[in-house]
Amino acid sequence: MLAKTPPMGWNSWNTFGENISEDLIKEIADTMVDKGLLAAGYEYLVIDDCWSEKERDENGMLVADHNKFPHGMKAVADYVHSKGLKFGMYSCCGVKTCAGYPGSMNHEFDDARYFAEVGVDFLKYDNCYHPVQSGVVSYNTMSMALKASGREILFSMCNWGKEEVWKWARSVGGHMYRSTGDIFDDFAHVRSLSESQKANLCCSAPGCFNDIDMLICGMNGKGNVGLEHGCTPEQYKYHFALWSMFASPLMIGCDVRTVDDETLALLKNAALIRINQDEEARPPMFCHEVHGSKEAFICFKHLSNNEYALGFFNPMEKATNLMISFTELGLNHLSGFAFELTDCFTGENAGRENEFIDLKVGAGDCKVYIAKLVKVK
Ligand code: GLA
Question: In terms of CB atoms within 10 Å, which of 8, 170, 187, 364 comes out highest?
Answer without folding.
Answer: 364
